[in-house]
Write a structure and sequence with these properties.
The chain has helices at 7-18, 21-59, 67-83, 87-103, 108-118. The protein has 5 helices and no strands. Helix content is 76%, strand content 0%. By secondary structure, it is mainly alpha-helical. The protein has a single domain (7-118), classed as Methane Monooxygenase Hydroxylase, Chain G, domain 1.
């Protein structure tokens, strides 16, 4: 072997330098309060969405044993509106989700009702 440092030693030192708890703490601490507030707001919004979907499913007479599948569809549709920036991507994702969950046996009429509630991001970004 040559006198150079072994690549595993370099990798280990690099990993330890980037994961040192004091370095990480100093990066996260200034933004931790904002992160906590964002998490609280996102959690509250998610819980509100679940409550609205639950009320709608109860109103439509869906058996509670099957509500979990509709909640999974609702969650996927909800998340896609936040993570996809372009309207064409949101439309395509909605079509994929509809196809996926209809093939799993969910009622298209119930999914239409959930779409009316859940699709809020109808404007393309500027």
């Amino acid at each position: 072997m040559n006198s150079e440092e072994d690549w595993t030693d370099r990798g280990t030192k690099n990993y330890r330098s980037k994961t040192d708890w004091m370095v990480v703490r100093n990066k996260i601490y200034p933004v931790s309060e904002k992160m906590q507030l964002n998490n609280l707001q996102a959690g509250a919004n998610y819980q509100m969405m679940i409550n609205i979907v639950r009320a709608k499913l109860s109103q439509l007479g869906i058996n509670p044993e099957f509500m979990g599948f509709y909640f999974a569809y609702s969650e996927a549709l909800w998340k896609s509106q936040f993570k996809l920036a372009w309207m064409v991507d949101r439309i395509r994702e909605h079509a994929i989700l509809r196809d996926k969950w209809e093939k799993r046996g969910l009622d298209p009429k119930v999914l239409d009702e959930l779409d009316k509630i859940l699709i809020f991001n109808k404007v393309a970004p500027k």
